[in-house]
Design brief:
Blueprint (H helix, E strand, L loop, with lengths): L4 H23 L51 E6 L5 H19 L3 E5 L5 H9 L5 E5 L2 H4 L7 H13 L8 H12 L12 E4 L5 E2 L7 H7 L4 E3 L2 E3 L8 H11 L10 H5 L5 H6 L6 E3 L4 E4 H4 L2 H13 L1 H4 L4 H12 L5 E3 L5 E3 L2 E3 L27 H7 L4
Parallel strand pairs: 1-2, 1-4, 2-3, 6-10
Antiparallel strand pairs: 4-9, 5-11, 6-9, 7-8, 11-12
């Protein structure tokens, strides 16, 4: 059959247009839609390592022999489990304690130290002590460690809090939250109850622990020359910390001697994965260790470098005029001042603080789904900054 010339031209144009549409379809960035609880592999550099079989960390490990609570010669190191908690959070605190006692501390019997800005009730003391065979101590935070410092302008804080609320920054308008972040950043390790203690494991109310851990976590840190241990590594909201990195740069310009030769600057300043975060935070990736879980050496916070850094930030006012959290403050300090090989990912410790998990592939873990970062909305997977840590530092 002979096709007329105009029809042939129209048919050719049709094929060209169809080819163009196909090309654009393949060139377009695919939208990621995953069922809840599954890792985003498109956004990651490779398959989530929590899908791989997970064992105990490499290095020297100390088992649970001779750790009875009443054994004065037990090989426990100078350490405590630490919680900042309110009386009204009693049930959530007991739940967290029971999880950690069941999975770890019933074997090692490390003491618990509880902090509050008001005295603990007798009910709080009774029920928490009943949750552990180990000694529990109850401490009140001194007013000079908790109160708003005199250089903070209250009207300016009120105006800043309104702006943070308009930007949907969680807890940005709550004065007590700002006080808590400041205390966790620069004062907890100065409390008289901890002056002779070196190591701590921070535990918050309403968290979960899923995996049996059969070695002394504190002894592991000490014996293997580690300073800080984390489970979850996230991006922060850049609107909450717009001047934190510029203030850090000012400090480092005045104190270049504090910079570690083996620092994690690349992790702190990455602009490839979340470029808008880096831009809004003025050069900071916003990556941070989620500090509701941290196992750490308080000697790092007591160092001259960290003390000078905290004092610089404190005077700048961002703990109140913005919402500088202890997580980015701790993380930036570690990334700059510490040898990054001394920072450890506890991939074998199953952990949840709503809405995020660390859930390894191990027969020692029960109650969480292997490889799940969150059981919330899919967009929360974008908050995962472990991949930058793995890229620039590794998985040690």
């Amino acid at each position: 059959m002979v096709i007329a010339r105009p029809a042939r031209a129209a048919l050719a144009l049709g094929f060209i247009f169809l080819g163009f549409l196909i090309l654009q379809t393949f060139r377009a960035e695919p939208k990621i839609k995953l069922p809840p609880g599954k890792p985003i592999r498109k956004a990651a550099d490779s398959v989530d390592p929590n899908w791989e079989p997970t064992g105990e960390p490499e290095g020297k490990l100390t088992r649970a022999d001779e750790y009875a609570a009443d054994n004065p010669n037990a090989p426990r190191v100078n350490a405590t489990l630490l919680a900042l908690v309110r009386n009204e959070e009693l049930d959530g605190m007991v739940q967290s304690m029971m999880d950690l006692e069941r999975t770890w501390n019933h074997k090692f019997n490390y003491p618990w130290t509880f902090f509050n800005d008001v005295p603990f009730t007798s009910e709080f003391k009774k029920k928490t002590q009943a949750a552990s065979k180990a000694k529990c101590s109850y401490e009140t935070i001194p007013k000079e460690h908790w109160d708003v410092p005199p250089w903070i302008n209250k009207p300016l804080f009120d105006e800043s809090a309104k702006i943070l609320k308009e930007q949907d920054i969680q807890y940005g308008d709550m004065m007590s939250y700002h006080q808590m972040c400041r205390w966790n950043s620069g004062f907890f390790y100065k409390h008289s109850a901890l002056l002779n203690t070196r190591w701590y494991w921070r535990v918050e109310p309403n968290v979960h622990f899923f995996c049996d851990v059969d070695y002394d976590v504190f002894k592991y840190m000490e014996d293997n020359n580690k300073t800080y241990g984390f489970t979850i590594n996230l991006f922060d909201a850049p609107q909450s910390i717009p001047t934190l990195w510029p203030e850090t740069q000012k400090f480092m310009a005045a104190h270049p001697e504090y910079m570690s030769r083996n620092n994690a600057m690349d992790w702190l300043t990455d602009s490839k994965r979340r470029p808008e975060h880096n831009r809004k935070a003025q050069g900071y990736s916003t990556c941070h260790f989620w500090s509701n879980f941290e196992v750490a050496d308080m000697n790092f916070w007591r160092s001259q470098a960290y003390e000078d850094y905290f004092n610089h930030l404190d005077r700048a006012g961002g703990f109140f005029y913005e919402r500088w959290g202890d997580a980015p403050v701790h993380s930036i300090a570690l990334g700059l001042f510490e040898d990054k090989s001394k920072i450890h990912w506890f991939r074998d410790i199953g952990y949840q603080h709503i809405p995020f998990f660390n859930c390894p592939n191990s027969p020692k873990c029960k109650g969480c789904e292997t490889g799940t970062l969150t059981d919330g909305e899919d967009f929360l997977y974008l908050e995962d900054c472990r991949w930058n840590w793995f890229k620039y530092v590794g998985m040690g």
